[in-house]
C-alpha cells in the first residue's frame, strides 16, 4: 500500500487565537516542536524557538517568517539552567517591531 500524499494538505484558516502572545517552544527545530511553532505563529503568536541545533532552528524560523509570522530563535540546551534562563529572558523582551513607546518626557 502506498501512503504517499500527492497533494499538500490545506491548512485551516487562522483565527488569531494567539495574537499578541509570545510562545516559547522547546524542541522547535524539528518534529512536533517545529509543527507547534508553525501552528502558534499561524495563530498570531510571536514565537521564540529553542533547541540545540542552530541550522534546524534557523530553517523553521525562516519558514515561519516566509509565511508572514514572527519568529526568533535561541540555541538552548534544556539541561543547562543558564542557557534556559538566557532564552526565556530573550522571549520576555519586547518584539523589535512592537517596541513600547518611551515614557513621556524621554
From TrEMBL:
Is Oxidoreductase set as a keyword in this record?
yes
SUPFAM superfamilies with a match to the protein in the record: NAD(P)-binding Rossmann-fold domains
Signal peptide span per the entry? none
Q: Where is this region: Disordered?
A: 87-106
Q: Which UniProt keywords are listed?
A: Oxidoreductase
Q: Which residues form a coiled coil?
A: none
Name the family the entry cites.
Belongs to the short-chain dehydrogenases/reductases (SDR) family.
Protein name from the UniProt record:
Uncharacterized protein
